[in-house]
Amino acid sequence: MPKTLVKVTLLTVLVILLVLPSVTVVLSSAANKQSVSNSTNDTHNSKKHGSFTCPVISGADSSTCSTNWSGYADNAGPVTNVSGSWTVPTLSCPSSGSTYVAIWVGIDGYSSSTVEQTGVLGQCSSGKASYSAWYEFYPSASVTISGFSVSPGDNVTANVSYSGGVFTTTIKDLTTGATFSTTGTVSNAARSSAEWIVERPALCSIFRCSLSTLSNFGSTSFTSASATIGGATGSISAFSDVAITMVGSSSGPVLAEPSSLSTDGTSFSVAYG
Question: Domain total for the chain?
Answer without folding.
Answer: 1
